[in-house]
Design a protein that fits this description.
- It contains eleven helices and 20 strands.
- With 445 residues, the protein is an alpha+beta fold.
- Strands 13, 14, 15, 16, 17, 18, 19 and 20 form an eight-stranded mixed sheet that branches. Strands 7-11-10-9-6-8 form a six-stranded mixed sheet. Strands 4-5-3-12 form a four-stranded antiparallel sheet, with helices on one face.
- Helix 6 packs across helix 7.
- The structure holds S-adenosylmethionine.
- S-adenosylmethionine binds next to helix 7 and strand 14.
- Keywords: Methyltransferase, RNA-binding, S-adenosyl-L-methionine, Transferase.
- Belongs to the class I-like SAM-binding methyltransferase superfamily. RsmB/NOP family.
Length: 445
């Protein structure tokens, strides 16, 4: 089901997705307008499957499957198909299949922001910070209908029906927190589940990580799982995760390393590093985390450094590097509204190049690095790969061990053969997931 017709503002310039902006010169990919429309509609719809990664450092897949099956049988109006992903031994797929998307609306309503609405459409419950409005008189355990504030005009704490042409009906739920708990006091950020979702117009069965002890499972998209799988971290490796918070991929790396070796995880701000540390602790991941700007963690003059002391590091320090770069996030699904400006989108490429340059130098000869983004633009994906191959002749692109995506788009200096080595995730991919991109590089020996 497609929600609004486009996630973007009317003034959004589609060239931002399909063109390569290099030093003010513009090159166009041959993605047709028809294909672009298909991508936009796909971005506005929800994936029908939910994937979750089982943390085998703390539990096993058989136990998780049992808990999930019991949970769905006891708590849901519809029992989804739950199975182990054919390509991964630690990933479970929840396929909502033909779950009904037609149900009655209730008189009482809850208004949520678009990020929260997007999460609900993928099967999340409503957490307190996402609630913008709740009609007065709502009681705990009462049924309510849920609407998304696409216009972003709803004032926090609204207590009457929200009159706005751009509110979208998202689904129904059962109230678990009252108004005074949600909006009451200044200086206290409310937390916890405010509304348990029962039905959504996407047909995704609600699922919550809290049905298992913390750190045993993580709701994670298949392309993100695949990207770490192709980094192939092993016990004993020295690995760098350059842009690591909140730590979804870091915890996967530590699991594949069986906590043996050295895993360094970096993020730029103290708040993000705190989130990263908490996640690693919850998941039992042995990680050395640091707050730093990863564009400046290399010291050309340092001949040797003790890696676990943190940056700066000397060149050629790491066997494996993940550069999961900050990006325009235009691969998010479903998108209900997007307010990114042209300048904001363009600002990512220079940062991605700087981060890439650090990574390329920090990689050992024979080492593997993965560059990834959760966006669909040509500039941030194939554009970065083409620029990297031109500027770092000591790097080569390698075929991922496991490919479930599509070849890269044309429009850069990459040949057809090279484009078949990168992995782009869009409406034509084998997996029904988010928009994503990754490329695997090896440093020549
Ligand atoms: C795409 S997110 C990473 C997601 C993470 N890899 C995961 O899977 O959970 C990008 C991260 O890069 C961080 N970041 C942005 N600029 C950075 C820089 N110059 N150095 C280090 N981290 C940076 C952001 O704070 C953000 O947490």
């Amino acid at each position: 089901m497609v929600y609004p017709n486009s996630p973007f503002k009317i003034t959004f310039n589609n060239k931002l997705i399909t063109h390569l902006f290099i030093d003010d010169s513009v090159t166009k990919t041959s993605v047709s307008n028809e294909e672009l429309l298909k991508i936009q509609q796909w971005l506005c719809s929800s994936p029908k499957i939910t994937s979750l990664r089982v943390n085998t450092l703390k539990t096993n897949i058989a136990k998780v499957l049992k808990v999930l099956n019991t949970h769905f049988a006891e708590n849901c109006n519809y029992t989804p198909n739950v199975y182990i992903h054919p390509s991964f031994t630690n990933v479970i797929i929840i396929d909502s299949g033909n779950c009904s998307t037609e149900f009655e609306k209730f008189d009482k309503e809850i208004i949520v922001d678009t990020d929260c609405a997007s999460a609900i459409l993928r099967g999340a419950h409503i957490y307190a910070p996402g609630v913008l409005g709740m009609v007065s008189g709502c009681q705990v355990n009462e049924n309510v209908s849920i609407y998304a504030d696409v216009a972003k005009k709803c004032k926090k704490g609204l207590q009457r029906i929200y009159e706005n042409d751009f509110k979208i009906f998202i689904g129904n739920g059962v109230v678990k927190m009252q108004r005074h708990q949600l909006f009451a006091t200044e200086n206290i950020t409310p937390s916890g589940i405010a509304v348990e979702v029962t039905d959504t117009i996407s047909g995704c069965v609600p699922i919550n990580e809290n049905i298992l002890p913390i750190g045993e499972i993580l709701l994670q998209n298949i392309p993100s799982i695949l990207c770490v799988h192709n980094l192939n971290p092993k016990s004993g490796d020295v690995v760098l995760d350059m842009c690591a918070s909140p730590g979804n991929k870091t915890t996967h790396i530590s699991e594949l390393m069986q906590n043996k070796g050295i895993l360094i995880a970096i993020d730029k701000t103290p708040k993000k590093v705190a989130q990263l540390q908490k996640r690693c602790e919850d998941f039992g991941a042995k990680v050395y985390s640091f707050q730093a700007d990863s564009t400046a963690i290399l010291s050309d003059t340092l001949s040797c450094s003790n890696i676990i002391d943190g940056p700066p590091f000397s060149p050629q320090s790491f066997d494996k590097i993940l550069l999961d770069a900050p990006c325009s996030v235009l691969g998010k699904r479903p998108q209900l509204a997007n307010r990114l400006s042209e300048n904001e989108i363009k600002s990512f490429v220079p940062l991605q190049r700087k981060l890439f340059e650090s990574a390329a130098k920090l990689l050992k000869p024979g080492g593997i690095m993965v560059y990834s983004t959760c966006t669909i633009t040509l500039s941030e994906n194939e554009g970065i790969v083409a620029w990297a191959l031109k500027n770092f002749n000591f790097l080569e692109l390698v075929q991922p061990d496991l490919s479930l995506g599509e070849p890269g788009w044309p429009g850069t200096s990459l040949s057809d053969e090279t484009r078949s080595l990168v992995q782009r995730f869009g409406p034509n991919s084998e997996v029904d997931s988010v928009g994503f991109f990754f490329a695997v590089f090896k440093k020549k020996t």
